[in-house]
Design a protein that fits this description.
Order of helices and strands of chain A: HEEHHHHEEEH
Distance between the termini of chain B: 38 Å
Strand content of chain A: 5-15%
Oligomer: heterodimer
Order of helices and strands of chain B: HHHHHHHHHHHHHHHH
Shape of chain B: globular
Number of strands of chain B: 0
Largest sheet of chain B: none
Strand order of the largest sheet of chain A: 3-5-4
Strand content of chain B: under 5%
Radius of gyration of chain A: 22 Å
Chain lengths: ~200, ~500
Amino acid sequence: MNHRLTFYLGVLASILASAIGLVAIPNWQFRDLKPFMDDQGYEHPIAPFGARSVGRRVYTDLGCLYCHSQQVRAANFGADIDRGWGTRRSVARDYIFDNPPLMGTMRTGPDLANIGARQPSRQWHALHLYNPRITSPGSIMPSHGFLFRRTNVDGTPPVEAVLLPAKPGEAAAYIIPTERGEALIEYLKSLNHTYELPEAK
Amino acid sequence: MSVTATEINAAAPDPEGYVNERVDLLTRVQIDRSCRQTVVWYYASAVVWLLLGSVFAMLSSIKMHNPDFLANYEWLTFGRVRPVHLNLVGYGWSSMAAVGTLLWLQARLCKVRLPFRRVLPVTCVIWNLTVFAGMIAILAGYSQGIEWLEFPPQALGSFAFIFVILLATSLKMFAERKVKHTYVSQWYLFAAVIWFPILYSIAVVSMQLPSVTGAAKATINWWFGHNTLGLWVTPVAIATSYFMIPKVIGKPIHSYHISLLGFWSLALFYNWAGTHHLVGGPLPAWIITVGIVGSMMMLIPVTTLAINHHLTMIGSFHMLKTSPTLRFVVFGSMVYTLVSAQGCFEALRSISRVAHFTHYTVAHAHLGLYGFFSMIMFGAYYYILPRLTRNEWSSAPLIKVHFWTAAGGVILYFAALTWAGWYQGEMMNNANIPFIQTVEYTRPYLIARSVGGMLMSIAHICFAILVWRILRTKPVSQFHGPTLLANPQSEAGLAS
């Protein structure tokens, strides 16, 4: 190769150019994004805290993102908003506290950007995670029984118990989420991007 | 096996051309011997990861239509076995097969013995430990939760060390090369060895930086994810087919000049293509548009490769019946043309609107990494391992079973998921159709995918048996020619 240096420089330049373009510049463009303060003085979005933040970690380590996205596409692009998955398109500002980002690339299951707004009930999430087919017949989501303790009803169930639907020939039973299960439910309930942002009108 | 020039002269004291040819052969034998330990270690490890990766593939696939299958074990839940599958076939099988192939190709193309023969096998051990640790980390719930970057960030330490050695090896061989001419394969191999460590370090470091915001991380994620395929495994496979096709059929490549265009256009455009994974996503339009433009421009390198690989083959297609290497490599390079052309158009907003978020993308990914890359790597094994072991493949019928189950499996896989994915997307974009119907519609196709996966797993078992046998049995004392899939004489008779 007579132009060995040209070759090396070309190879380096090609990747560094894209690193500047797709790593450095986007981050520079997003660096000043701050939560938006609405008329009542509330900030949107807010950083996950407490159980939500633990639950986000559970969501990540159980690999929920391989089947569920967390992004609402614009009204003219797909039917996300028509399906009630969101009130507006998602924008970069929605993700300023997201680390790692959980936008996802697959929708084997529905989008979860606003699942907390659609399903605010702890009981629904507990039953759905325990066995998705209880709440969503036909679902192919795996059961997450390992996030719960199942007990047969004997006397008055504790307050945190969620009763399983009665099955003929089976003793009545309830489930109690483990710490991780409870955190995951808290996180899912917190997924709510229905607030308004000026850039996503 | 050591033959000296005197022995050659004693055995054949004749024309100069003959002796030169023998010396040439001798050099090749010496180079192959120098590569033996390193390449065999990398190749054997890659096959183990391929088998294990197939186990996790089958687990994931079955879980998608039978969600209660092994659902009681947290470490075997779908969301963990699926990334384990990806990482084992990506960083275990594909990358290790790529390293073995690229070291051997570079040694042969530079006509020098492999240097650093003590430390290179150590890199193989470190690589295996890294993949193993990464697998355990994901199963135990320590995934980073970033597609293609699930391994804990400590993996960067191992890969940085390994790639410093690999880069030094490449540079040393190139500096001491005995051939003036630099063949096109070498550009791709060199570039791959430079590109991957840069990609990986920038991606891992920026994912760890708290100052990098969520949306930027998503962009970096797909800059890395797509480039791992485009700038690491793809160049190695292209280099392999550029080497194997002319070598096996005994004809030069169609056009040397056009290969230059192919290389530089790939370097220039592939780098920018990754953000098409975010079409419709919550990012500024320019980021997405750059990805779409980069993807579309990929038509240039893809066309040049198609011209060079397919036109070189014209007149030699009958050899696909006899040569295992050629059969796998040509299949792979034909699929490259198809899958890349598909990828260019898939990036368009109008196609992505339907295909994104569906099994259509999954089908495309497997056609690329399996139908193109893995098939070419299988071909490389069939060519390289006999030369390293001075042994022959034990069974031509088993190679045929390997080929047809692998090819049939990936075609079934691709067809089922492409069809299912497209309609899944069409239904998803119609708010009048309940979402659960998109799930129910795809289920039969997911079962078909498991059947395709089963075929590919059978292929891998055949392949592993063949590799095991060629490594374990004593070298054949007398060389009675390569293992061919059919008798070349009868084929020549048919052709003439």
